[in-house]
Each structure stands twice: as C-alpha cells, then as structure tokens.
C-alpha cells in the first residue's frame, strides 16, 4: 500500500509540475503529442485477495499512438471479486490473455489518454452448461488512463474492470471494480517512488 501511495503521489506531483509549466508561454514542441510507440517493461500493481494486500508483478505492454496491448493478463486476479464461489475456482485456472484497446488523447500537456480496453471473454462451465464469462473495462473515463511524462519517459497505465457477466445476462458478478496499475521505469532504473 505504501508503494502505491508513493506512485500515486509521484503521478500527482508530476502532473502538477507539468501543469504549472504549461501555464507559461508554451512552444509547439511542448504542445505536440509525443511519440509513445514502443514496448515497455515495468511493474503492475493489483490487489491480491488471497493475501489481502497489494502485489507487484513484472509486466510488459506495447503502445502505438492510438493502441495499447497488455501482454498476459491473468483473469485470476479478479477471482476474489466474484460473487460465485464455484466460478472463482474456475477463473483462477483460466489461461492468460492479451488485452487490447485504443488510446484517446484527452490532454496534450501533460500527456493523458483514456485507455479504452476491449472486452475479453473466457469459456466457463456453470451448472454443467458451457457459458461465456465476459470481462468489461471502464472506458472514456479517467479511471482507465495512460499518462506519459516527457522528462523521464515514464508511462503509467491504469485499467479498471467495470463488470464481469455470463453470456448476455448483463448481471454484474463482481463485488468490486478492481484496478490494475502498470508503470515503466524511469531513465537510469529504479522505481518511480525513488524520483520524489
């Protein structure tokens, strides 16, 4: 939890600093959208229900100017948020999938995007019948975002799960809406909170 507070504090300070700088006369370079394309390595923080704490894992994701792909998303990370105990165990065993989505710029300086992830579906069995569990993410909202710091080239990406439902039922099976925070390393290595 302390690490998460440091990261969020860093992001807030970075956004305030860049925001204050943006109030001065800005050049075309400062207002131009930076090239964020590439594959990023870093960490991902999520709430681990099994140990009732935040866990940090190594992660990678790929960006273009308007697309994002997160490699190997584990739906098991949301199992503890499901209402159905039988479904929880199945979800913990499901294969990892890549998440894909689009990036929609909503502020150029500081550089902030909405990260609109596409739904992902998984086969499950409920009461002996084959069903499809679909995970839906928050879209067009600052709860799912990508922030890019021009000075350190650090990327922070948060995706928030909105709902999980079976087939076309649209009944939300989640007790909570978990978030997953991805962040790259600053130049020279180290974690973001070392930059405070």
Give a quick rundown of the structure.
This protein has 196 residues and is an alpha+beta fold. It contains 3 helices and 10 strands, in the order ααβββαβββββββ.
Give a structural overview.
- 18% of the residues lie in helices and 44% in strands.
- The protein has 196 residues and is an alpha+beta fold.
- Strands 1-2-3-4-5-8-9-10 form an eight-stranded antiparallel barrel.
- A hairpin with a 2-residue loop joins strand 6 and strand 7.
- The chain is elongated and about 55 Å long.
Structural class: alpha+beta
Distance between the termini: 17 Å
Strand runs, count: 10
Average pLDDT confidence is 82
Q: Enumerate the spans where pLDDT stays under 50 for 5 or more consecutive residues.
A: 13-27, 190-196
Main beta-sheet strand count, sense and barrel state:
8 strands, antiparallel, barrel
The gyration radius over C-alpha positions equals: 18 Å
* Percent in strands: 35-45%
The H/E string reads: HHEEEHEEEEEEE
Write the layout of secondary structure elements.
Blueprint: H1 2-23, H2 28-31, E1 38-48, E2 53-63, E3 67-73, H3 85-93, E4 97-107, E5 111-117, E6 120-126, E7 129-137, E8 145-149, E9 154-166, E10 179-184
Q: Which descriptors apply to this entry?
A:
3 helices, 44% strand, 10 strands, 18% helix, 196 residues, alpha+beta, 8-stranded antiparallel beta barrel
């Amino acid at each position: 939890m302390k690490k998460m507070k440091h990261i969020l504090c860093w992001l807030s300070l970075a956004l305030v600093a860049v925001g204050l700088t943006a109030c001065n006369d800005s050049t075309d370079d400062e207002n131009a959208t930076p090239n964020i394309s590439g594959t990023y390595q870093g960490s991902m923080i999520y709430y681990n229900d099994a140990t009732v704490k935040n866990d940090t894992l190594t992660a990678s994701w790929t960006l273009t100017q308007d697309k994002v792909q997160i490699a190997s998303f584990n739906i098991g990370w949301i199992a503890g948020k499901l209402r159905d105990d039988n479904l929880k165990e199945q979800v913990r065993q499901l294969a990892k999938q890549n998440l894909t989505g689009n990036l929609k710029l909503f502020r150029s300086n500081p550089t902030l995007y909405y990260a609109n992830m596409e739904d992902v579906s998984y086969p499950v069995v409920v009461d002996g019948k084959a069903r499809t569990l679909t995970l839906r993410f928050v879209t067009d909202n600052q709860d799912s975002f990508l922030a890019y710091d021009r000075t350190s080239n650090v990327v922070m990406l948060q995706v928030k799960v909105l709902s999980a439902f079976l087939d076309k039922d649209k009944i939300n099976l989640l007790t909570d809406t978990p978030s997953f925070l991805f962040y790259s390393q600053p130049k020279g290595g180290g974690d973001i909170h070392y930059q405070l």
